[in-house]
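Handoff note, outgoing to incoming analyst
You'll be picking up this chain. Sequence as last confirmed:
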Amino acid sequence: MSMNTKPDTAPWIDPDDDDVEWTEDHFRRAAVYVGGKLVRPADGTWTRPGRPTLENPKKQVTLRLDPDVIEKFRATGKGWQSRINAELRKVLGI
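Most recent structure output, in case you need it:
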């Protein structure tokens, strides 16, 4: 018996060969192409819907900050970018 034998695994089944039933929700979330051009990107995945659309979505910007400022906020853990946003809102009085 060789030390390099692989464990037995179930045979791979091609998902394209399976009869997958599309629901109305799948069609609603699917990407839409017209003439090879993407006119609406997909929302979510096959099993999970995407995030709900926000009334006032945040905008991505490029901002240069001092390294010590970034390190201090990152040290506070997950959500540090939102905390920078909150601090800016406080300073601006909004």
